[in-house]
Amino acid sequence: MQRRKISPRHNWQQIVTSQGLLWHGSESQPYWNESAFYEFTAKEVDELEAATNELDRMCIEAGQRVIDEKMYAKFGIPERAIPLIEESWEKEPPSLYGRFDLAYDGKQPPKLLEYNADTPTSLVETAVVQWYWLQDEFPKRDQFI
User: Fold this and answer.
1) What is the pLDDT of residues 39-93, one digit of tens each?
2) Cα separation of 134 and 91, whole Å?
3) Phi, psi of 116 (to 5 degrees)
4) 120 has pLDDT over 80
5) 26 vs 83, which has greater pLDDT?
6) How sure is the predictor about 16, in pLDDT bands with cuts at 50, 70 and 90?
7) What are 75-82's contacts with CB under 8 Å, separation 24+?
8) What's the rounded Cα separation, in Å, for the pair 68 and 89?
9) Is 37 in a helix, a strand, or coil?
């Protein structure tokens, strides 16, 4: 894994705002940062994919346990939400939507820092803004090469 420095795109704030990432930091601390990116080897990508698949499996198991054991109150889930949760869980293959924040140095196995399943920006960040950044900066590459 290599950290690569790069110059941010001209007018990057306006670009990411137009793509839906409306909050990209404060004056004192950026949230979206275009001054560097990380480049991974195929082996590192495989290791991260295996780790996130395992974490996802564990989260699905935990969600199933909450439903099976009716642990809603323990998690502060209101009564009115329970039927919707159970219907959604049974209607589709069980899934959770979120982003795993990992610590990873390419030498040790990835470690979970937190699971962000409560932020609406994850999809915009990862599926839209990062993709267009890649297309603007490296149009002949994709995220896995």
Assistant:
1) 999 999 999 999 999 999 999 999 999 999 999 999 999 999 999 999 999 988 8
2) 36
3) -90, 90
4) no
5) 83
6) very high
7) none
8) 11
9) strand
Cβ(48)–Cβ(40) below 8 Å: yes
**Residue 145 vs residue 37, higher pLDDT:** 37
Residue-level pLDDT at 145: 59
pTM, two decimal places: 0.81
Which pLDDT belongs to residue 142? 79
Distance CA 12, CA 108 (A): 34
Asked if residue 60 lies in contact with residue 95, where contact means CB atoms within 8 angstroms, the answer is: yes
Tokens representing 135 are: 């297309």
Within 8 A by CB and 6+ apart from 21, the residues are 32, 121, 124, 125, 128, 129
Torsion over CA: 70, 114, 21, 144 (sign): negative
Q: How many CB atoms lie within 10 A of CB 44?
A: 18
CA dihedral over 55, 20, 141, 37, signed as positive or negative:
negative
Q: Show me where the domains of the chain are located.
A: 1-39+119-145
Contact 89, 63 (CB under 8 A): yes
Tell me which residue of 103, 60, 68, 98 sits closest to 86, measured CA to CA: 68
